[in-house]
Every structure is written in structure tokens, then in C-alpha cells.
């Protein structure tokens, strides 16, 4: 069938067969489907939606557009976690090595930050020498030798996704549940996983701020992945305040190292790491119950085994061999680091988390365009959590800035992002819901 006829069918609300979807994606990959036709297809899906069968077919076709990895030579389950993103979400840096320490293998393909959310790849790029986009042979070697490797998407994996996303990004069709689902899962399926846990964020700093939207996305991701042959569980977790007490790139890596070594562990961050990791161990068959998984994971973290695997991964991918014990000798530091003070006494009642993310971008720690460079040193650290009691001149956090002007502007933005009241607020649940994927 001609590409325009496939577009016409979807435009008019008719269902597409797996063969039609596959034909369209093959054409997109090979160039016989134009960017204009891909944009029209994306807009038709945006307005008409897709059935679960169509979503599985689209995800599978995009996965098959490039290399699909095979990890048959590994001695344990191949697992991964994916987050829809937020502020202070550095979970991957601790979780991947912790799962490796428990006997799993984690070939994690992560992305860069866009908009107000940070990207795991940008955090890792703040580590001197770390090769975040190695060739596939190196990727396989590091996973085999260290149990985990966190890298960026290569040209070999799901190239149709990369092309379609770039078109969606400039045609106002990003916010489509079927297209988001296929984009995320095509890369995960191409990575050859045997189990996946999705962390779908909701709240003021999330891509899906409402619980209703997050629930729809979580169910779609879990069901489509499972229907495509990848057992998946999705958790909806809170992003109504920064997850870690740091927001930026190098500051979040430093925070992750402090977590792994036990120097400092943010309570909410620790709970999310345990919740997601426990699900990964369960879905990978490494434990029989969630309780057993939580104990195993907590032991791997507390014993230093997770920290050891993190260091091995960093070293294997070109980073410094003593990063864990000497992070300040390697991670970039901003020339200006100063406290941002509270101007009234009370309790932190609300945090406009998205505004903190935007302040990091304004400092230079994020992008407004995909091709922009970033300053890895800037951001915020020691951020107060909701419910914290404050007196006048209590630091809300510390700003890390390149210039005096940037530090002043970011300080004002942080003060405006925090609401202070006289009564301690009720704390939102950290884990809102859990969904296990249903096969088709």
C-alpha cells in the first residue's frame, strides 16, 4: 500500500494492520517515506490514537529497523529500568550497578535532557574520559565484564525511532501516548532485554504532571512491552519535588557517589531506588518475592558492592579509576557556589519543581535545542524537601554558577520555586501505583 493510503486510513480513524505499519516504518528507515509523510502520519496518530495491537506493531517495527542485541552468552538475566524523567532523577547511576551486584546484567541506553528535565547521559558526560556512546562491541564487552553499562543510543539501535522523534519534535506531536510508548520501548526491545521496569513520573516536575496522564502512559508502556515479548512492570512515582537534593549534572553525579558510598543518602531517592530495583530483581527471577528483593538490594548498596560495580563501569568506559574515592578531584566545579537563603520562617509547603529544572537550564546546565552545549558544573545542591522546617536565613539550597549574574538570577528563581507556610504540609505518597503488563 502507498504511504499516503496508510496515512489516509489512520486519518479517517481506521485501524492499521501490522503489515501496513511495518511497511511504513521500513519506508521511513530506507527513505521512501518522506519527512512530510512521516509528519502527517504522526499527526494522524496524535488525533486518532492507536489500539493496543497497533501500538505493539509500531513498537516492534521500529525495534526491527536496526540491530537487535542478543545476550545469550551472559550468565544472568538482562534487565533495565527507564524513567520518563524529572528533576534530580539520578536513579540510574545507583540502580544499574546495584542490580549488577545482585547478579543481573544492565545494558542501559539513556538519553540527554531536553526542556526542563535532566538527562542521564549529560550527567555521565560530566565524568572526564567517560565514553557515553561507545561502539556496540565495547558496549557488549563492558556489560559482560562489569554487569552494567549506561550509554547513549547508537545509530544501530532503532534508527526509525530517532528519525520519527526528530520529526515529532518539530511538528507538535510529541505528546501522543502511542508514539511515546513506541519511542521508549523500541530502544528497550532492541537492547535485547529480558525484563523491564518503567518509572513513570507524575507531579509538577514531570513530563506527565497529572496522575491521570501518568496512569494512561504507565498502562500503555507495561501492556505494549509485555505484548511485544518483554515482561514489564510500571511504577508511578512522585515528581512533585526534586527526587535527589541535587539538580544539575556533575552535582547529581556527586550526589550519586555519596549515595553509593554511604556518605549521604536522600530518603526519597533511596526509597525509589529500592522500589524500582526490587521490581527488577523480581521480574528477572533473581528473587521470589518483593521482600526478598528489597533485602538483597539493600545489602548490595550497604555493603559497598554497588559502589564497586559503579567504579568498574566508569573505568571500563574510560573514566577515572578513583572517581568513587576522589570525586572532587575529577568532577567539574562551578567557580561560584553560594547558599540561597529563606526570607521567612515556617515550613516548605510546596515546590514548583519544573521551575527548578528551568533554572538549571538557564544556568547553562540544560538545553533549549538538541544541538546546544551544556555546562556540566552548574546547578543546585543541598535542596530542601517538602515539609522541611526553616527559619530566616536557612539555605533552601546552594547554587552552582559560572557568573555572578547567573548566580543571582538562579537564586531568585529558586526562592520563587519554594512556597513557605506556617503549617507543615501533608506529604504526597512517593509510589502512587503499580501496573504489571498484560500480554495480548
Keywords:
alpha/beta, Transferase, Pyrimidine Nucleoside Phosphorylase, Chain A, domain 3, Pyrimidine Nucleoside Phosphorylase, Chain A, domain 2, Aldehyde Oxidoreductase, domain 3, 3 domains, 16 helices, 45% helix, globular
Task: Describe the 3D structure.
It is globular, with a radius of gyration of 22 Å. The protein folds into 3 domains: 3-49, Transferase, Pyrimidine Nucleoside Phosphorylase, Chain A, domain 3, CATH 1.20.970.10; 79-154 and 169-326 and 431-436, Nucleoside phosphorylase/phosphoribosyltransferase catalytic domain (Pyrimidine Nucleoside Phosphorylase, Chain A, domain 2, 3-Layer(aba) Sandwich); 332-421, Pyrimidine nucleoside phosphorylase-like, C-terminal domain (Aldehyde Oxidoreductase, domain 3). By secondary structure, it is of the alpha/beta class. Helices cover 45% and strands 15% of the residues. Helix 5 packs across helix 14 and helix 15 packs antiparallel against helix 16.
Amino acid at each position: 500500500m502507498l504511504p499516503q493510503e496508510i496515512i489516509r486510513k489512520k486519518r479517517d480513524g481506521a485501524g492499521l494492520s501490522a503489515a501496513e505499519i511495518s511497511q511504513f516504518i521500513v519506508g521511513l528507515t530506507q527513505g521512501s517515506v518522506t519527512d512530510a509523510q512521516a509528519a502527517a502520519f504522526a499527526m494522524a496518530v496524535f488525533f486518532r490514537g492507536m489500539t493496543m495491537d497497533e501500538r505493539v506493531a509500531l513498537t516492534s517495527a521500529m525495534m526491527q529497523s536496526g540491530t537487535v542485541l542478543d545476550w545469550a552468552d551472559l550468565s544472568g538475566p538482562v534487565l533495565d529500568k527507564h524513567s520518563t524523567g524529572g528533576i534530580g532523577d539520578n536513579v540510574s547511576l545507583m540502580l544499574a550497578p546495584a542490580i549488577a551486584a545482585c547478579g543481573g546484567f544492565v545494558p542501559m541506553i539513556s538519553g540527554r535532557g531536553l526542556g526542563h528535565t535532566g538527562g542521564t547521559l549529560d550527567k555521565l558526560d560530566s565524568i572526564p574520559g567517560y565514553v557515553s556512546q561507545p561502539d556496540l562491541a565495547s558496549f557488549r564487552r563492558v556489560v559482560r565484564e562489569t554487569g552494567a553499562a549506561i550509554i547513549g543510543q547508537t545509530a544501530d539501535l532503532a534508527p526509525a525511532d530517532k528519525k520519527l522523534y526528530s520529526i515529532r519534535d518539530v511538528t507538535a506531536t510529541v505528546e501522543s501516548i502511542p508514539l511515546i510508548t513506541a519511542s521508549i520501548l523500541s530502544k528497550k526491545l532492541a537492547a535485547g532485554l529480558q525484563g523491564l521496569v518503567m518509572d513513570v513520573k507524575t507531579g509538577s516536575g514531570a513530563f506527565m504532571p497529572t496522575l491521570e496522564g501518568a496512569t494512561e502512559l504507565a498502562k500503555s508502556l507495561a501492556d505494549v512491552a509485555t505484548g511485544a515479548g518483554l515482561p514489564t512492570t510500571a511504577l508511578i512515582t512522585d515528581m512533585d519535588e526534586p527526587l535527589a537534593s541535587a539538580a544539575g549534572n556533575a552535582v547529581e553525579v556527586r550526589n550519586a557517589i555519596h549515595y553509593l558510598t554511604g556518605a549521604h543518602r536522600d530518603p526519597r531517592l533511596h526509597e525509589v531506588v529500592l522500589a524500582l530495583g526490587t521490581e527488577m530483581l523480581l521480574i528477572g527471577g533473581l528473587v521470589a518475592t518483593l521482600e526478598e528483593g528489597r533485602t538483597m538490594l539493600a545489602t548490595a548498596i550497604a555493603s559497598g558492592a554497588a559502589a564497586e560495580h559503579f567504579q568498574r563501569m566508569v573505568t571500563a568506559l574510560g573514566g577515572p579509576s578513583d572517581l568513587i574515592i576522589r570525586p572532587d578531584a575529577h568532577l567539574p566545579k562551578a567557580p561560584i557556589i553560594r547558599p540561597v537563603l529563606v526570607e521567612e520562617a515556617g515550613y516548605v509547603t510546596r515546590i514548583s519543581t519544573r521551575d527548578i529544572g528551568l533554572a538549571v537550564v538557564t544556568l547553562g546546565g540544560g538545553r533549549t535545542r538538541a544541538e546546544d552545549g551544556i555546562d556540566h558544573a552548574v546547578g543546585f545542591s543541598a535542596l530542601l524537601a517538602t515539609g522541611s522546617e526553616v527559619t530566616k536565613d536557612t539555605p533552601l539550597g546552594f547554587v552552582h554558577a559560572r557568573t555572578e549574574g547567573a548566580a543571582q538570577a538562579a537564586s531568585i528563581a529558586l526562592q520563587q520555586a519554594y512556597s513557605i507556610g506556617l503549617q507543615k504540609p501533608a506529604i504526597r505518597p512517593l509510589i502512587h501505583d503499580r501496573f504489571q503488563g498484560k500480554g495480548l
